[in-house]
């Protein structure tokens, strides 16, 4: 099969012919129809993830059809349209038994623990616990973004952040996760403020429901506090940086809640005394278990959530190295989806 192969951290990968994955007991092999390009993939390419062993195939947001079914997998067949959380939980540990597959200590993640979905085929372990059946009317490009960014934002905003109608929610970073969070929080009836350095990303945030957009910079916190009447109920770092964390915490009102979703490879400094005297909550959120997908998919089917609008570009495997390199300069507006089966450059950008 054709796949993107990283041979050195920080050095552009290439498209290579590599062996296709073999189906394992309890797992499936999926023919990848679409896979998202996420900032987490950039972190892995840069060497920020200790689980990665080179040479490596990235990719963890995927949708496709089952190509092979392993021994012991019931209720699934070749040809079924599926997606999966990027966290493939074991299904048997204490956390999985409690329904918390997103923090399974035995989890495996395609594109990190083993070769991922920037390829024509990918293996998924523990299929009985992790496969999600796709509605026939949900296209693969849209479905690919659900497994990490949209599902992660859905659980962070709705379940972990406990956002309700009327609250002020500030989203820092308007890449795929941030724009998903804007759309979801707005659908819940929150007053959403979006913060980014990229005017195009802020324009999309306004389109997806932000009532105000703020250019990141020295004046951002003061503007946020003024527009939210003394501070936000909820802030979310959807990118991952020490500077964003500080601005997010300063933007909260007393007893506010901060959601940390963006990875922080360089660490972060937190004023713990400020957390104490204002009774602030620091909430980490990591993915979403497969059994929560039906609720989210029902809202997509009803039209309340429109993740298809987040996909702004589709590319082929040949275009992936350049797209990864673009992430060195920042996160492009919207979601980029890779179609591994395409043999030529697509260069497709959806109109706003």
UniProtKB/TrEMBL annotation:
The keyword Zinc applies. Its cofactor is Zn(2+). GO terms for molecular function: oxidoreductase activity; zinc ion binding. Pfam families: ADH_N, ADH_zinc_N. Gene3D superfamilies: Medium-chain alcohol dehydrogenases, catalytic domain, NAD(P)-binding Rossmann-like Domain. Keywords: Metal-binding, Oxidoreductase, Zinc. SMART domains: PKS_ER (SM00829). Residues 10-338 form the Enoyl reductase (ER) domain. Transmembrane segments: none annotated. It comes from the Bacteria. The keyword Metal-binding applies. PANTHER family: ALCOHOL DEHYDROGENASE-RELATED, L-THREONINE 3-DEHYDROGENASE. Belongs to the zinc-containing alcohol dehydrogenase family. This is Alcohol dehydrogenase. It comes from Kribbella voronezhensis. The lineage of its organism: Bacteria, Bacillati, Actinomycetota, Actinomycetes, Propionibacteriales.
């Amino acid at each position: 099969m054709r796949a993107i192969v990283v041979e050195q951290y920080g050095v552009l990968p290439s498209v290579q012919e590599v062996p296709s994955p073999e189906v394992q007991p309890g797992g499936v092999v999926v023919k990848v129809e679409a896979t998202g390009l996420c900032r987490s993939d950039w972190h892995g390419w840069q060497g920020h993830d200790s689980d990665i062993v080179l040479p490596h195939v990235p990719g963890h947001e995927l949708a496709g059809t089952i190509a092979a079914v392993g021994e012991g997998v019931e209720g699934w067949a070749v040809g079924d349209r599926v997606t999966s959380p990027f966290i493939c939980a074991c299904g048997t540990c204490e956390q999985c038994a409690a329904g918390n597959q997103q923090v399974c200590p035995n989890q495996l993640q395609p594109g990190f623990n083993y070769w991922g979905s920037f390829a024509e085929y990918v293996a998924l372990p523990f299929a009985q616990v992790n496969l999600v059946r796709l509605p026939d009317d949900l296209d693969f490009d849209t479905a690919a973004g659900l497994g990490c960014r949209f599902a992660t934002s859905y659980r962070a905003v709705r379940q972990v952040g406990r956002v309700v109608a009327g609250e002020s929610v500030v989203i820092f970073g308007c890449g795929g996760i941030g724009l998903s969070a804007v759309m979801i929080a707005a659908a819940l009836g929150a007053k959403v403020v979006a913060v980014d350095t990229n005017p195009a990303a802020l324009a999309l945030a306004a389109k997806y429901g932000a009532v105000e957009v703020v250019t990141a910079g020295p004046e951002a916190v003061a503007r946020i506090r003024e527009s939210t009447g003394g501070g936000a109920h909820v802030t979310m770092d959807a990118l991952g940086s020490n500077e964003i964390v500080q601005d997010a915490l300063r933007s909260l009102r007393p007893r506010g809640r901060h959601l940390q979703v963006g990875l922080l490879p360089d660490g972060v400094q937190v004023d713990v005394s400020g957390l104490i005297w204002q009774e602030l909550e620091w909430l980490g959120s990591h993915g979403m278990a497969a059994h929560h997908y039906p609720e989210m998919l029902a809202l997509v089917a009803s039209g309340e959530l429109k993740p298809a609008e987040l996909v702004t570009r589709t590319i082929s495997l040949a275009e992936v190295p350049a797209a990864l390199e673009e992430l060195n300069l920042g996160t492009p507006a919207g979601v980029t989806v890779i179609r591994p089966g395409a043999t030529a450059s697509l260069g497709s950008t959806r109109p706003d």
